[in-house]
């Protein structure tokens, strides 16, 4: 039965995940809106998940650890997104802005 | 058959990367969230191709279904009318981030391609892929403690999100200055004092 292990080298999948991670990093560093920064962080978490699933499929497909770790990453990402967006809404309510540069009360 | 799988993989990669690049570069934040949904769908398709069906379904349910909608809600709740100018990054920061991202990608490219021998599954090898049943059993056996901790984490995050975002009857819209705060407190004290006096008055009239 044909499968992806014979058709695509592992390094291609890893490079795809690395490219996605770097795109997310670029977005997290260059955007000014805090919501856009959170979006970029979600992209980076997705890249990590691709890596975990790819290693599971290519190296140890008979074990479940790879998939389980990917699912835990998804759980933590969901919790992070919920708390992060709640914090953005709270910041917006008190300061009327979501631009990261303008929230600088603690700057010395 | 293998060339078909390779072509599908390349197409999915193109979709993921294009959607991700659009999501981090497009000015309109709502469009960015929609491009992010496209990227998440591409990742789910890649999980399908990697024969991780449960992860693909979870990806669609949680990322596409929950997180994207949460992001769209946050955008709607925090949008300013004059927000269009806020999204433009400064030129130096744009190029700095671009150089940093490209340098990191270049750094990881060489060792991934050339120097690491992976002990991947061989074509002749008899490989049973772990099923969803095994996944569920693993969650209930050797990963039971992390599973329970994850449920507590989700509960705490949910309660925390509600507490953080809870609005106190829409009273305070922004941080007040000290003078405004003092004036507000005094007016409130005055009002409570007046109410107490009125209450006393009514009690007296009832007594008579």
How would you describe this structure to a colleague?
The complex is a heterodimer of chains A (108) and B (208). Chain A has helices at residues 4-7, 10-30, 34-59, 65-95. With 108 residues, chain A is mainly alpha-helical. Chain B is mostly helical and 208 residues long. Chain B is elongated and about 95 Å long. The chains are: A mainly alpha (108), B mainly alpha (208).
How far apart, in Å, are the first and last alpha carbons of chain B?
99 Å
Look at the structure and give the mean pLDDT of chain A.
88
User: How far do the termini of chain A sit from each other?
Assistant: 63 Å
Mean pLDDT of chain B: 83
Order of secondary-structure elements of chain A: HHHH
Assembly state here?
heterodimer
Helices and strands in order:
The complex is a heterodimer of chains A (108) and B (208).
Chain A (H helix, E strand, L loop, with lengths): L3 H4 L2 H21 L3 H26 L5 H31 L13
Helix pairs in contact in A: 2-3, 3-4
Chain B lengths: L1 H24 L3 H21 L3 H25 L13 H25 L16 H9 L3 H22 L12 H30 L1
Helix pairs in contact in B: 1-2, 2-3
């Amino acid at each position: 039965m044909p499968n992806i292990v014979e058709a695509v080298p592992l390094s291609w999948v890893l490079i795809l995940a690395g490219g996605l991670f770097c795109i997310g990093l670029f977005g997290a560093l260059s955007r000014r809106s805090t919501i856009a920064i959170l979006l970029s962080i979600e992209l980076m978490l997705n890249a990590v998940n691709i890596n975990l699933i790819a290693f599971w499929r290519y190296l140890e497909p008979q074990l479940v650890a790879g998939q389980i770790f990917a699912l835990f990453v998804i759980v933590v990402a969901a919790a992070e997104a919920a708390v992060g967006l709640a914090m953005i809404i709270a910041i917006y309510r008190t300061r009327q802005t979501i631009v990261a540069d303008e929230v600088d009360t603690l700057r010395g | 058959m293998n060339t078909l799988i390779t072509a599908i993989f390349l197409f999915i990669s193109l979709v993921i990367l294009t959607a991700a690049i659009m999501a981090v570069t497009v000015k309109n934040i709502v469009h960015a969230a929609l491009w992010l949904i496209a990227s998440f769908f591409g990742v789910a398709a890649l999980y399908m191709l990697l024969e991780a069906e449960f992860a693909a379904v979870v990806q669609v349910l949680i990322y596409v279904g929950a997180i994207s909608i949460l992001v769209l809600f946050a955008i709607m709740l925090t949008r300013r009318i004059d927000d269009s100018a806020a999204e433009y990054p400064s030129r130096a920061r744009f190029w700095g981030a671009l150089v940093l991202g490209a340098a990191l990608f270049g750094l990881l490219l060489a060792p991934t391609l050339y120097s690491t021998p992976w002990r991947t599954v061989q074509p002749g090898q008899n490989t049973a892929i772990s099923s969803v049943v095994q996944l569920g059993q693993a969650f209930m056996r050797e990963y039971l403690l992390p599973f329970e901790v994850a449920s507590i984490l989700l509960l705490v995050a949910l309660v925390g999100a509600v507490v953080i975002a809870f609005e106190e009857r829409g009273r305070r819209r922004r941080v007040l200055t000290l003078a405004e705060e003092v004036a507000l407190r005094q007016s409130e004290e005055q009002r409570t004092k007046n109410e107490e006096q009125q209450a006393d008055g009514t009690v007296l009239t009832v007594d008579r």
